[in-house]
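The protein record passed on below.

***
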Amino acid sequence: MRLRRLLVLLLIIFAVISIKLPETFQLLGTKVRLLPLALPVYDIDADAEVRSSGEFHAIMLDAIREVKDGVKVLIVKYDEKTYDVDAAFKSILAENVGLGFVSGCNATFTRALGKESAAVELKLQYIYPREKIISMRAETDSKANDIINSIIKPGMSDYEKVLAVHDHVVKSSRYDRLNADSNNVPALEHEAYGVLVKGIGVCDSYAKAVKLLLEKAGVQCILVEGSKAGDAGQRPADVDHAWNIVKLNGEYYHVDATWDDVSEERDSTELVYHHFNINDEEMQKTHIWDKGKYPPCTGTKYNYFEYNKLIANSQAEVLSMMTKAVSGREKRLLVKIADYKSSAYNIEELIKKAAEKSSLNQGISAKWIINDSLGIVDIEFEY
């Protein structure tokens, strides 16, 4: 009798956890028929039911947008690869840079044996209280709209829009070197809010600000996560970085506004364009990223130096450009030297020769910086 009771109890347990058993089988010589149980698979009051990864992303995006603490989802046909919560969470934040101040997302899955469905409960963590986040997001969006109305003019090309956004972000922002070096950067300086509203931030704040502004200007822009290249092009484990990829006339280019902000490195208000619309070949000299995650950047037409005809292919061409600048008493010359090597190009001697050819060897002085990796020379003249 005890054995029969034990077997019956086991049978009930199997049924509840949804292990599929034949409708009829033999139990101690007695034919037993199982009745289908009309029980719910999960004891969960789901907020939504989804049948695709797109629907799942939309539910998570809505929860983040509304600053909800959590959401319960019933996934009709679940598999781990399609419904990767961590990947979905990172993708949503990278694509929607205006929805900042989210620090994490935990997920609890419940599945029944033999079933394709799964229930997932998402728990979202935020940096600030809900009311403050809503206010800061609104302030960021309003500031971005004001900036676009100020710098984007009717009839501008996409190249001109990218240039305007790049220049505004670089001129109006300051990199928080002090806190970055001490690993004590405030949370707001990792969001677009830092650069756009407070005028200070670190690389991801710069990159998110650029993306938000360009999207409002109608230019496709991607947030890129990578790092500064170390010795021999190796990636240092402790150096993380963020920048952008933009799409111009069907081709992709890298834009790094953070690295073009050199205000703390030189006594000048002049803008630089070392990392403005450059391709993979150039970018990989100083940056490392997972190329499989992002579109290949192969364009050259809209590179700043190519577009403005500031590329020299020989010493003779460099000297010619310098002579023209000095003869015209230009205050600045930017030139990218295609075959640049520090051992082959003596910039000081070339400037002297340019002054002699211009009959201005008296009363002229110059200072310059050289980007050895990219072969860019930036000269400022004084007469």
Summary: Residues 10-42 have pLDDT under 50 and may be disordered.
